Amino acid sequence: MDKKEILEEILPFFNSLSVKESQELISKSILIKYEEGKIVHNKNSTCTGLLITISGQFRTFISAPSGREITLFRLLDRDVCILSASCAFQNITYDINLESEKESLAIIIDSSIIKDLSKSNAKVLEFLLNITQNKLSEVMYVLEQAVFFSLDSRISNFLIEESNLTNSSTLYLTHESIANHIGSSREVVSKILKKFERDDIIEISRGKLKILNIEKLNNLSNS
């Protein structure tokens, strides 16, 4: 796999770099394969660097001391994660976790070169600001859901998103994994899923569930 071709395709500022800058960017980028469930970055990590998803899927989430988690956003093919490189920028820190949800391939760009290029090239800085703005919008959406929407609505919305993501009505999810995504407890999630099952909205079996009535689920997600 040619790193130059990938970087040129995904980074809009690549062609504005000098030959020396582009060569340094390539040399300070590495291809890494991650197994499913691998923690790529957490609050105790050294500066991981800018991550670009080549294939697979990553989950960015925060966790509480109690162990409860909430997903902030996913990274799919060609998505870029700046939060894993935030330690390169002065006075910016994020205690986030980054996990591979599937077997994934990514390019990691050393934070130091991103920091240097952002100081000398306005297009690099513009790119970083745009990514930050987009991810902030996703995080604000998650916070809005957590604060203003009922758990019934949030679970419904999550199931719909998962169905769209996998293009399937059968979802291979445990109650615990759903709880970790939405920032709730497994017990509460199980109780609500059982209620959905009684209402013939979903069908639950071990390690998976099937959406039976997407219309009812949509109505709940908007309530």
UniProtKB/TrEMBL annotation:
Keywords: DNA-binding, Transcription, Transcription regulation. The keyword Chloroplast does not apply. Residues 149-215 form the HTH crp-type domain. The keyword Disulfide bond does not apply. This is Crp/Fnr family transcriptional regulator.
